[in-house]
Design goal:
By secondary structure, the chain is of the alpha+beta class. The chain contains two helices and 17 strands.
């Protein structure tokens, strides 16, 4: 009887510890997404984008009037604000008289707000609107933001699959034999060469799969697709950040942290698309689902 009681106590202890581990993991995933939601709503997040304007060489007039080359949203409130001039890889701002545009918080005359050959990339602001110049291969443009954009105010969360720790999968990391790049297409039709860090090899349901990873700060960055795309998840795939491998070449892929690319929220982003080898033939029922505006 004593052995039976001790056995029951041991089993109950194991169940309790297991339940605590599950709750701890669920809490970790919830904290991760709450941090993601907060980042989305920041001034440099993805929810406040209201325009993306590719510049032509020479002068590009801007304002809310349809006669401008760059037609800003009506909420901007200035029919003819001035022009930006693209010349020799530099972008120069010229505001019309009495238009209080600020460059890095100060009003300036004829400032260079961007230069390909230097680190100049100034922030231009007016009331709740602000923008910087972006460069995508041979294209240079203005990405306009509004801190009072409707999506910033209305956003609460993103639907997700139920957290399931079985989607946190051990992976082996295989670095390339020689330094190489991975060609990645983006939604505006360009092909960008990204530094290939290596291949993540893992098993799901007894079958071996792999994902190519590129560099993203201190993490491995994975752009992937799967059989849920266009049904329950975003049609152009999702993103993953994966810890770099340990000294034994091992890491974890946590599909519970799979998240939508910026293009799921706005048409004013230039998202990369999954390379063909990163489109998995199975359903990854973990992480974020489609975002519904």
């Amino acid at each position: 009887m004593k052995k039976l009681i001790l056995g029951c106590v041991f089993i109950l202890l194991q169940i309790t510890l297991s339940a605590q581990a599950v709750n701890s993991y669920n809490d970790e995933i919830e904290r991760w997404f709450q941090q993601r939601y907060a980042a989305l709503k920041k001034e440099d997040g993805w929810l406040n984008l209201v325009g993306l304007y590719w510049l032509e060489q020479g002068k590009n007039t801007f304002g809310t009037n349809d006669q401008n080359m760059l037609v800003f949203p009506k909420e901007f409130g200035i029919p003819f604000a001035g022009y930006v001039e693209l010349i020799n890889g530099k972008v120069i701002l010229e505001a019309n008289k009495n238009i209080p545009l600020k460059v890095n918080g100060k009003q300036q005359q004829h400032p260079i707000i961007f230069s390909v050959d230097s680190n100049i990339n100034a922030s231009v602001s007016f009331n709740s609107f602000h923008w910087r110049v972006i460069k995508r291969e041979d294209k240079i443009g203005i990405r306009l933001r509004n801190n009072n954009a409707p999506l910033v105010k209305s956003f609460q969360s993103i639907n997700r699959f139920k957290t399931d720790s079985t989607w946190r999968i051990t992976a082996s990391f295989q670095a390339p034999l020689f330094p190489s790049t991975l060609p990645i297409k983006n939604v505006i039709g360009q092909t960008v060469q990204m530094k290939l860090l290596g291949k993540l090899i893992f098993s799901i349901g007894g079958k071996i799969y792999s994902l190519d990873a590129v560099e993203e700060g201190d993490d491995l960055f994975v752009i992937f697709g799967d059989a849920t795309n266009s049904s329950s998840t975003y049609g152009a795939g999702r993103f993953l950040l994966v810890d770099k491998p340990n000294t034994e070449g091992k890491t974890f892929i946590d599909f519970n942290k799979a998240y939508n690319p910026p293009c799921a929220f706005t048409k004013f982003a230039t998202c990369p698309l999954p390379p063909l080898q990163n489109i998995l033939p199975i359903s990854i029922t973990a992480g974020e689902k489609k975002f519904v505006h």
